[in-house]
Specification:
Strand content: 5-15%
Structural class: alpha/beta
Number of strands: 9
Shape: elongated
Radius of gyration: 21 Å
Largest sheet: 6 strands, parallel
Oligomer: single chain
């Protein structure tokens, strides 16, 4: 076992690959040296059948199957920018026009996307369990509202939503699905545009209450999660008797620590993902493949 791990580490030293590749190799080494999580779907379904309170953690992998770009990793650029360049309070202060172009592009793109079978399976399972006096809640890192479109009702959005705005002055948060969100952004935000729109600040989205500048109601890099949402997520995870981790790489904190903490309580945790993650061996189940294929089978009546 020690030799196996040493072999993997030796190979890593000779490979000039990305951090993602490093994590994949490290995870494979650990999995080969320990008990692999079960992939027994029948066994999982027996546990699901008896569960009274199911907490589901979802990430970008779920939405990727609906054609939603993640703006992370290779090819994840908007124009010449990675998300971290624009999704921050500093970027918004320096160039609110450019940041709003980025989010206008994302909003308009999302209006063309529809939920995939994974979103639908969760919404249908929630409705079915509710009729039986059971509970299923989705705790998502996604900001695209595809869970809402699919019909899920019990949703906690850790990182906010593309379709809500927040006033930079009075703090008012409002739902907003306008297309475009303001006249000045119509036709702007194209991913292949050669120049920024340079929209004057007074023409960008403004608050209907105090007329000040609006921002997307999302959690940016450098900002903390909403304490109320975080507390509610903590309550759901503390009370669940089954946890599902769906389409997330489990590397973005604090969400990455949620499922391992649930597993430490002895609660069954099932991971549904295209590949193993750094925390896969913490869980009782791992189902590899597209979530839109594996999850409907797992949650079927």
């Amino acid at each position: 076992m020690v030799l196996q791990i040493a072999s993997y580490l030796s190979n890593i030293r000779h490979l000039k690959k990305s951090q993602k590749t490093f994590l994949q190799i490290k995870t494979a080494a650990v999995m080969s040296a320990s008990t692999r999580p079960s992939s027994d779907m029948a066994k999982f379904r027996e546990i699901f059948k008896k569960a009274k309170h199911v907490a589901v953690l979802t990430g970008a992998g779920v939405s990727a199957e609906s054609g939603v770009p993640t703006f992370r990793g290779a090819g994840g650029l908007w124009r010449t920018f990675v998300a971290q360049d624009l999704a921050s309070p500093i970027a918004f202060r320096q160039n609110p026009s450019l940041v709003w172009e980025f989010y206008h592009y994302r909003r308009e793109l999302m209006l063309t996307k529809v939920p995939n079978p994974a979103h639908v399976a969760l919404a249908e399972a929630e409705e079915r369990l509710a009729a039986e006096g059971r509970r299923l809640v989705v705790i998502t890192q996604n900001i695209d509202e595809l869970h809402v479109k699919a019909g899920s009702k019990n949703i906690l959005e850790l990182h906010g939503s593309l379709f809500r705005t927040e006033c930079t002055q009075c703090g008012e948060v409002k739902a907003n699905t306008d297309s475009p969100i303001c006249p000045a952004l119509e036709g702007k935000g194209a991913i292949n545009a050669k120049e920024d729109a340079r929209i004057p600040e007074d023409k960008l989205p403004r608050c209907g209450t105090c007329s000040e500048l609006l921002r997307p109601n999302v959690v940016w890099f450098g900002e903390g999660l909403d304490h109320d949402v975080l507390d509610k997520a903590g309550d759901e995870l503390s009370n669940c008797d089954l946890c599902l981790v769906v389409g997330t790489s489990s590397v973005v904190y604090p969400a990455a620590m949620f499922a391992p903490q649930v597993a430490e309580r002895g609660v069954p945790v099932a991971e549904f993902n295209l590949e193993a993650t750094p925390v896969t061996t913490s869980f009782g189940f791992h189902f590899e493949g597209p979530c839109g294929t594996t999850l409907p089978i797992a949650l079927a009546p």
